[in-house]
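Q: Fold this one first, please.
A: Sequence and structure below.
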Amino acid sequence: MSDTATTMGTTEATQPAASAPMAAPSFHIAFCVDNHYFRAMAATIASIIANNPGQHFTFHVLAFEVSDSHRERLQRFESMYQVSTELHLLDLASFAQFSHFLGHSHYSLSIFTRLMIPSVLQGRTDRVLYLDADILCVGKLDEMIAMDIADDIAVVVPDAPVTTQRRVEALKLPHAEYFNSGVILINLQKWNDNEITAQVLDTLLNSQQHLRFADQDALNIVLNGRARYISPRWNYLYDLIHDLNVNKTALRPVGKAVFIHFAGAVKPWTDWSGHDARHLFRKYLLLSPWADVPLDQEPKNTKELRMHSRFLFRQGKPLQSLKWYLRYLRKRTAK
């Protein structure tokens, strides 16, 4: 697949002089975002850099369009830290070889972006870590960076036990395993040699089963029994709604977690939630070129409006709860 890619700055560490010790290779990390998620991704990137001093990273960003402001800020990471950034702008031509899959698809093209990573980065590196942009790094990546994945197509992290049980049963998976697709370490050569992307697309578009989680379900069907599983500390799932429903705003202990994945509907950049996760998010956002961008002061959609109303009621604030519920009703009616 050909892609239109804009490369920002250097792409590899400079080759050292013969007498100097060999520099460690750059570790490649990929994100797939739209213009609304650059702020979130910035905090993720800053958290990785802050907790891994001395490690060189190359951050790849795949997107269909990027504003000039986001483009400039992304490049600024390189002047702030010893890292490289590469922006890969995808267009419809990038998906030409998969046109027979997409021709009659009811899925948005954005759902396929993550599946394009192995094609876009083939020849650029031998492996890449894909991350969702609602993740914060709170530990060192040394163990993952040193991991031997020569025999693996992908290295993944199990989803929550209840989710795993339900999806294994629903999808009739032969192996009782199911992973959350927010963190995937990909062996690019093996992925491409085994035509994983094509198989996942075929599953997405032709499966007779109900794929509740779309590409995550399809990835699990294709990689069932073929992926290597590692500790949940590499994708520690944290649902803020769990805390807010019982009027708790302090972060629960996360043990030895390296990546905290805020996978629920409430994100750590929602200042209105009142949860301490927003302080952790702000800490890392302030270390990024997006430091001047504020957190979300108010709910932005009907789902958030209704949740905020519920949380306020649980906090013993019925009048404020009613105010936000009425705003929810007005917004829903206006749709």
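Q: Good. Now the second chain.
A: Here it is, same layout.
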Amino acid sequence: MKINKLNSVILLGLIAIIGILIAQLLWTKQAFTFEEKKFSQKVHIALLEVAKKLYEGTNHELPAENPVQKVSNDYYIVNIDNDFEPKILEFYLKSEFEKVNITIDFEYAMYNCQSDEMVYGNYISYAKESKTHDAVYFPKHKNLVYYFAVRFPHETSYLFSSLRFWFVLSFALIIILLVYVYSIFTILQQKKYSELQRDFINNMTHEFKTPLSSILIASHYLSKQEAISKEEKLKKYTEIIINQSNKLNAHIEKILNIAKSDHKGLVLDKKMIDIVAVLEEVIENIQLKYPNSVIDINAPKAYFILADLFHFTNLIYNLLDNSIKYCEEKPQISIRLSEEKRQLKMEFTDNGIGIDVKNLPYVFDKFYRIQNTKSNEINGFGLGLYYVKKICTLHHWKIGVRNNKENGIAITLLMPLK
């Protein structure tokens, strides 16, 4: 099975992010282990110094073997073959821990085998000095006479806080991975919907065009029959069939063009064209369809632009057709041409029903139709102005729409002059 390029890129990106995340978690684990080992070494050094100071000034010598033993992650014992005062031990512990930069809470306790009792020291808090002794008994160790024990109840949280940056970075990578997966899922869903929509439009238009072509051929043949031409009503009905079939055919072609441009992109064939000449030709054609419409051109001179003649002609036709359809009076459209900062400004104003201000930002959206008194009477798919906007974008033109002061709308195009 052939994997397309998009799926390959998605898979490689996912593998890369998961790999980075796993590496980050492994580095964090190694950093935690290193911090734990470094903390344990500091504690050993500090406790060994405490043991040495407890032997100073006594008749006993420090044992040859290391008196410091680590019983668990946060619990240490120190074998001292000598009696000593708890307050002296506390002073030595605090001073030696501070020398090696250990400033977290700890608790200590002493055991005297001669009296067979545990003598407890204090809980040392660097946040707030504790004034009372804890009454928690440490486990008794056999084969030791005098010894003291030290426990760090918050060692784990202290080590985690020292690795705060590593955990924040790991959390950020997890968020990035989740966002990436969500984005990929959304892209694939949109791609799937786009393909379904394109296939549906292609199939729909194909199924429509086949019977429509047969209807048009039959209608044209029918209109030429002598019996039809003599009967006024039959002739009128035949013309209605032909006109409505042509209108439906135009809608189908428009849908096909939009679907094709969305999938592959339109290829423009730009040439130097005379705008006034194009406008006059389009107006002549549209007035055949709407004989009662009045369309004026206000152009002080001839203007030339670089554009695709076919699409530019359709653009003008769509704008004029739209203005006439959404007019409740006799359609009057004015087309004004002027120069502004080396650009050609072409403004279409009509006397139509206008557009609500809240709907103006959406008039160029695909399939968007404004609900008003005329929308129920007019057939369409909401593609006319979307097509106009798309052609302007491909030509790098600017287009805008606003309401007139009295009634109707004004659509403005800005195009570079040649």
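Q: Anything worth noting on the second one?
A: The chain is about 50% helix and 20% strand.
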